[in-house]
Specification:
- This protein is α+β, with helices and mostly antiparallel strands.
- It contains ten helices and 16 strands.
- α5 crosses α6.
- The radius of gyration is 22 Å and the shape is globular.
């Protein structure tokens, strides 16, 4: 149930010494075809890591035969040398795959590169390059789980997902536990499918999927420099689904992975779904949901098991969404503790002892809705992000 579940893909994950722990830190995902179409979505941060800049160029060519990923270093804010290192990593990967046990017709321009880890330091290329060679040698049709492990940073668990369809499937791996905010999150995601689809169809499906999944998780309001989501199609199933079918399957995998990301967010003790209903537009619903999700007073209230609906209303009031303050309703875990902008059911009825929390806000302005997923703000989050350099 991973990135190598669809036919036509191999993957691996190895330890190259980039991590002081000795854990796996270099991964490789290879598309054996017969198709090599691809699409990608990248961070909206204006400060982009070298591998993001490289992979954006690769995607313009419309062909991705391999993705090489490393943890243990982001290769972000590393200047021209960082970009040269990324370029050379792609060249080295292509050369190794051309000369491997299963030789591939591949050039550097067919290799996407992804990195994650500490910002501002060059990668130790004397470790990266042998790691790529070892990863190529370890490629296997069941290597997806090992690739998922190799891209972990502060993740506590690896993340895999699959959507099975009649005769074809979509699979994926992801990493991410901190700097989770809209316009992706601190994530590296590789999604594969053995369906047959052209680049435009893949791009439409991926953007539609990320818009309602990865773009709607927000743990800490921090946007990364390295976010990358890639979708590769091998065509090995000889099935060509229509756009709606492909989008639904890709969205299923993206949603599964996004929920795994938010569930593993650094220091989180609550997994919070914020549904905004009755909005005049989807944009209003998203804005209100994101504002509540990013409000530190709301987040700390949930950490303290406090159903503080007043903080939620105060957050809604900072948005430009259409609403009347005396018409807003708020429920927490099904208890409507606020009606028409004032106290309603007894807040002591709200049970916040569990991990999962559902917040519903009804603006009573229209028919549109959206859900944003977030977490609380805990002592654990502060400790994890202050006790080490990240």
């Amino acid at each position: 149930m991973t990135v190598t579940h669809p036919k036509g893909f191999r993957a691996s994950g190895v330890a190259a010494g980039l991590k002081a722990t000795g854990n796996p830190d270099v991964a490789l995902v290879v598309n054996d075809g017969p198709d090599f179409t691809a699409a990608g979505v990248f961070t909206a941060n204006r400060v982009k890591a070298a591998p993001v800049l490289w992979s954006e160029q690769v995607l313009k060519g419309g062909v991705v035969r391999a993705v090489v990923l490393n943890s243990g270093g982001a290769n972000a804010c590393t200047g021209s040398q960082g970009f040269r290192d990324t370029h050379f990593t792609a060249e080295h990967t292509a050369a190794v795959l051309r000369g491997g046990a299963k030789p591939m017709m591949i050039g550097a321009g067919d290799v996407a590169v992804c990195s994650t880890g500490l910002i501002g330091e060059l990668l130790p290329m004397d470790k990266v390059l042998p790691g790529v060679k070892a990863a190529a040698k370890a490629l296997a049709a069941d290597g997806g789980p090992r690739a998922a492990e190799a891209i972990m940073t502060t993740d506590t668990v690896s993340k895999n997902a699959v959507a099975q369809r009649d005769g074809w499937s979509v699979g994926g791996i992801a990493k991410g536990a901190g700097m989770l905010a809209p316009a992706l999150a601190t994530m590296l995601v590789v999604i594969t499918t053995d369906a047959s689809a052209d680049n435009e169809t893949l791009d439409q499906a991926l953007r539609a999927a990320t818009r309602v999944t990865f773009d709607r998780i927000d743990a800490d309001g921090c946007m990364s420099t390295n976010d990358t989501v890639l979708l590769l199609a091998s065509g090995a199933s000889d099935v060509q689904p229509d756009l709606d079918e492909l989008t639904a399957a890709v969205t299923e995998v993206c949603h599964d992975l996004a929920q795994q990301l938010i569930a593993d967010a650094e220091g989180a003790t609550k997994h919070i779904a914020i549904e905004v209903a009755g909005a005049a537009s989807e944009a209003d619903a998203v804005q209100v949901g994101r504002t509540i999700a990013g409000n530190n007073l709301v987040k700390t209230a949930f950490f303290g098991n406090d159903p503080n609906w007043g903080r939620i209303l105060a957050a809604v009031g900072t948005t430009s969404a259409a609403f009347e303050p005396d018409r807003i309703d708020v429920a927490i875990n099904g208890v409507w503790i606020c009606r028409n902008g004032a106290a309603a059911e007894d807040r002591s009825k709200v049970d916040l002892t569990g991990r999962d929390v559902k917040v519903t806000v009804n603006l009573h302005e229209g028919e549109m809705s959206a859900t944003i997923w977030t977490t609380d703000l805990s002592h654990g989050y502060v400790h994890e992000n202050s006790a080490y350099s990240s």
